[in-house]
């Protein structure tokens, strides 16, 4: 019996050792499946740069051995990214990479291609089992940038003013805009019968210089871009400096009211509170106007020159450089981005042109404010109102009463603050009040190409010409 028991124990030990060894191999050297690959490409169309995000993870205990991203096209395979994980390094079982490979040197032909991610682990691949994993995405190689032909040859702008460019831009472009230094003016496409015909209303904002060089830029879905320097003449301007006296009565009347309305604390020192209003609240008010006027109707809603508030005297002009004086000291400097027009107290405020009300409410330094979209990125702003007679979404006609003047917001007396904005940037309203400027710089250019049948034609040249006779002063 003792002999049999010894033999049995011996066999059991051998079986246990084998089981342990098999278990160890299974645990450390085999895997339940190939590595998992999660894979997103930057876009289906690839230009100069192929990019994407990849996460590979081993499905079992064996760590990753290597990961590779490659582009397969026309029978060739171009490696774009490869990373090895050496056996003596700490084991990596999951790896996320972002790749961005420049294809310009790779000599890859345009057309269909496949982006592949391959990965393998340190697992033993027994019995001819699948070695590693490959995930792929079909893409198109496109290295041809959009084509731009600028149609308009004359772009005469004044610093702070606007202009219009017409161009033919190939249909592959997905993003077309005029870039003026840090300002961006998106194009309108689909307005003209010619599907390639494109228009951009753009400005040289007042804080730039006459040396600004507007560019027309078109980029396609693959990221290829074409830029054309526009032929422009920019007339320089010196904006006048104006001193604004600030006294304690004004601070007491305005600072607590505005800060409370915008939800900011009112400091004991009202001069500090005033600086918060004139800097922070001003910037927030501008940001809000910018956001409100960034989107616009894709057709012009106006029918001629813009209407200037009736019988109102200009108190302050566009881009006045304001110097704020308190107790004999300069405490701040800001630029006045519009026109201040004053007549009687509580005068009716008239819509400058046909459009759609996109905002009717309180906006910081502008107080109770109405913003009207006129299409093509043009909007008008009416600030410091004492009452508002329109609602957001409402269509208005030129001259229609939209409210009454007042002194809400940062206003020392009853007046209308009037701004014209182009794609969220203040421009000089004088141009839009001027029938000749509007005809020469905008309407005649728009009239030089046939309009698509489905586009509205409110700003047809006939309407503008008819309005010429009753131009505003
Ligand atoms: Zn103003």
Helix content: 10-25%
What Rg is obtained from the alpha carbons, in whole angstroms?
Answer: 33 Å
User: Count of helical segments?
Assistant: 6
Low-pLDDT parts are 457-473
What are the bound molecules? zinc ion
Instruction: Find the structural class using helix and strand composition.
Output: alpha+beta
Distance between the termini: 125 Å
Give the overall form.
Answer: elongated
Report the biggest beta sheet as strand number plus sense, adding barrel if it closes.
Answer: 10 strands, antiparallel
Task: State which percent range the strand residues make up.
Answer: 35-45%
Mean pLDDT: 90
Number of strands: 31
What does this entry look like structurally?
Mean pLDDT is 90; it is low at 457-473. The strands form 7 sheets. Strands 20, 23, 24, 25, 26, 27, 28, 29, 30 and 31 form a 10-stranded antiparallel beta sheet that branches. Strands 2-8-7-4-5 form a 5-stranded mixed beta sheet, with no helix packed on it. It is an alpha+beta fold and 473 residues long. Helix 2 packs across helix 3 and helix 5 (435-446) packs antiparallel against helix 6 (461-468). The protein is 19% helix and 40% strand. It starts with a helix and ends in a 5-residue tail after the last helix. A hairpin with a 2-residue loop joins strand 12 (173-180) and strand 13 (183-186). Residues 316, 336, 338, 340, 417 line the site of zinc ion.
């Amino acid at each position: 019996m003792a002999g049999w028991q010894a033999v049995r124990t011996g066999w059991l030990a051998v079986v246990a050792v084998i089981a342990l060894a098999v278990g160890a191999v299974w645990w450390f050297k085999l895997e339940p499946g190939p590595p998992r690959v999660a894979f997103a490409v930057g876009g289906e169309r690839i230009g100069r740069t192929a990019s994407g995000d990849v996460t590979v993870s081993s499905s079992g205990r064996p760590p990753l051995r290597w990961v590779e991203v490659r582009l397969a096209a026309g029978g060739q395979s171009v490696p774009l990214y490869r990373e090895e994980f050496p056996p003596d390094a700490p084991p990596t079982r999951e790896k996320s990479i972002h790749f961005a490979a420049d294809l310009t040197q790779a000599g890859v032909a345009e057309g269909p291609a496949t982006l592949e991610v391959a990965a393998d682990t340190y697992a033993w691949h027994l019995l001819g089992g699948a070695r590693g994993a490959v995930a792929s995405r079909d893409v198109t190689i496109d290295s041809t940038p959009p084509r731009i032909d600028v149609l308009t040859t004359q772009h005469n702008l004044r610093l702070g003013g606007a202009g219009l460019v017409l161009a033919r831009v190939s249909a592959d472009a997905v993003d077309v805009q005029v870039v003026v230094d840090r300002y961006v003016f998106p194009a309108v496409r689909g307005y003209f019968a010619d599907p390639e015909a494109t228009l951009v209303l753009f400005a040289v904002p007042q804080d730039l210089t006459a040396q600004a060089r507007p560019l027309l830029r078109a980029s396609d879905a693959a990221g290829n871009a074409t830029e054309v320097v526009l032929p422009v003449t920019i007339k320089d301007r010196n904006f006048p400096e104006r001193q604004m006296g600030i006294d304690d009565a004004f601070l007491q009347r305005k600072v607590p009211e505005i800060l409370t309305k915008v939800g900011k604390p009112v400091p004991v020192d009202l001069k500090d509170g005033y600086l918060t209003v004139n800097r922070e609240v001003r910037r927030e008010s501008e940001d809000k106007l910018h956001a409100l006027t960034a989107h616009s109707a894709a057709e012009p809603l106006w029918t001629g020159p813009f209407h200037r508030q009736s019988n109102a005297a200009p108190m302050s002009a566009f881009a006045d450089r304001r110097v704020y004086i308190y107790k004999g000291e300069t405490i701040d400097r800001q630029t006045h981005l519009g026109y201040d027009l004053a007549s009687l107290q509580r005068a009716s405020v008239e819509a400058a042109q046909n459009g759609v009300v996109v905002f009717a409410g309180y906006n910081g330094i502008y107080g109770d404010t109405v913003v009207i979209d006129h299409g093509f990125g043009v909007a008008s702003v009416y600030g410091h109102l004492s009452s508002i007679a329109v609602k957001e979404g409402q269509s208005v006609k030129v001259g229609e009463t939209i409210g009454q003047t007042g002194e809400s917001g940062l206003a020392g007396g009853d007046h209308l603050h009037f701004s014209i904005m182009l794609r969220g940037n203040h421009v000089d309203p004088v141009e839009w009040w001027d029938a000749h400027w509007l005809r020469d710089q905008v309407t005649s250019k728009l009239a030089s190409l046939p309009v698509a049948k489905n586009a509205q034609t409110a700003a047809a040249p006939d309407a503008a010409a008819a309005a010429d006779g009753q131009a505003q002063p």
